[in-house]
């Protein structure tokens, strides 16, 4: 039956192109982080029976790399295709963090409609606004899913009103404001037109998509396809992914590749694939409106157009927001270099950053006056820390400087990036949050109570957000939830106080001795464990005072043959503070680096010896 179905399907493609296009829906799932996008895609795949009954695939199937699973977030957008009631639905799962906004911007070009997920308790959040703005500007049809209606104290009707207000505020047109809505719980596998009536499955959602998302609009003419994503295979090389806007593509067909700058390169398609389930299926022909992957084209970049061989016509390329933050990447020149990593030279780092530029659109790399230092520009600390974490797992050793925001001069005025910050925290702790943000030049916009929690909104310079998360989590015993989105550039707000405490710096190379750590504990908190290898100039702790202090923790106890009172006191050592990569990047001062190797994260001074530090004070 399967063979004949494939055969008939092939005939069907060739003979009924118009009806084939009408039976395709391209939809992107957008939402704020943690509102349930990937879980919803899981349930759609199960409902459309992509897997055998005895196949145990787990949950969050599309978050398939280690970093995504560990952090519980989506970092790169993924395509999956399901068949429902004779219609092929291409679903694009997108990230929710504003730091990965470049991913969302490019993949929305492949969709005809968006499925906006909103949490029934939290309502529209900053990133909901960010991704929805992009979708409305592109003229996509929104369908709203109010998820997690089984939560306590949730208000689905109010949230529906808020989504309408938000769309109106973002300048949606009348046909976009007339959006259909379903309510339900993706986790519990049900969706319904009425949130009080629980159903058995998520069919109401899929019916809503088929009825309301338009079939791809196809104009007559020569083939045109915008490359919006790329993949890599070690067998076939780079693979171009995008939606065919018009015309037909065939295997072995000669085509023109139109670059961003208008240059035309002649090429040929070796293989064509369409998306089927979680994988791809090789086909002979792709019709307009479908999302496909093309193998055999060299030298392409995201934003280029695949066009007709004879008369190439380019499509409008993808506009990407500018980066707002920069970090210095440099080779690891500490005394421990090369002990853990495979790739340690500047050539390795340069090649890896160039490779990353191909698929990471929101990132830029700049040269510096030194051959082994690179300025890397991105959307935020999270955006760049994901790249650093990936490189570290691949076996790279490198050092990173303090994150800096990008200052611009607009009409002769020095301007800096400003973000909208939303903090969700217990009501009795909201005063502390306001205090912290005000010190960092933030302005409070609103304060809204929800049950026992407070949602406070601020406008704050991007500089002020660096290091704020650590302070907030400490002050609220880990209860605060923070999210922010870039608004624009505003005049420079003045100096923001940095870290109040200085560093404890190692004086010698050697092992950290428990006896020394015990004796120095009243001087500050330590970042290293007893018997850990350390080197001169390494930041091994935080001083209780505001200045840096050089200490010797490699000194052992002097042993003599004279008994002394108190000689056998136990060393009671407080456990060392261990930083995650983002925490380390936000913690360091401008005269410090984070040393990143496959197994360790260390903080160090740029100048390791004390005489150098005094001579070249930064």
Shape: globular
Query: What is the number of strand segments?
Result: 35
Please report the distance between the alpha carbons of the first and last residues: 73 Å
Number of helices in the DSSP assignment? 17
Mean pLDDT: 84
Computed CA radius of gyration, to the nearest angstrom: 28 Å
* Low confidence ranges: 1-19
- Residue fraction in strands: 25-35%
Helix content: 10-25%
Q: Let me know the largest β-sheet.
A: 11 strands, mixed
Structural class: alpha+beta
How would you portray this structure in words?
It contains 17 helices and 35 strands. The chain is of the alpha+beta class and 618 residues long. The strands form six sheets. Strands 18, 19, 20, 21, 22, 28, 30, 32, 33, 34 and 35 form an eleven-stranded mixed β-sheet that branches. An eight-stranded antiparallel β-sheet has the order 12-11-17-8-9-16-13-14, with no helix packed on it. Helix 12 packs antiparallel against helix 14.
Descriptors for this entry?
618 residues, alpha+beta, 11-stranded mixed beta sheet, 17 helices, 35 strands, globular, disordered N terminus
Write the layout of secondary structure elements.
Blueprint: H1 2-15, H2 17-22, E1 24-31, H3 37-47, H4 66-71, E2 78-84, E3 87-93, H5 101-107, E4 113-119, H6 126-137, E5 141-147, H7 156-169, H8 174-177, E6 181-185, E7 190-192, H9 203-212, E8 224-233, E9 237-246, E10 248-250, E11 254-258, E12 264-268, E13 271-276, E14 279-283, E15 285-287, E16 291-295, E17 305-307, E18 325-331, H10 346-359, E19 364-367, E20 373-378, H11 381-393, E21 398-400, E22 404-405, E23 408-410, E24 413-426, H12 430-439, E25 443-450, E26 453-461, H13 462-465, H14 468-475, E27 481-491, E28 503-506, E29 510-511, H15 514-520, E30 524-526, E31 533-534, E32 538-543, E33 549-551, H16 581-587, E34 592-596, E35 601-605, H17 610-615
Parallel strand pairs: 1-3, 1-4, 4-5, 5-6, 28-33
Antiparallel strand pairs: 2-3, 6-7, 8-9, 8-17, 9-16, 10-15, 11-12, 11-17, 13-14, 13-16, 18-20, 18-21, 18-22, 19-20, 21-34, 23-24, 24-26, 24-27, 25-26, 28-32, 29-31, 30-32, 32-35, 34-35
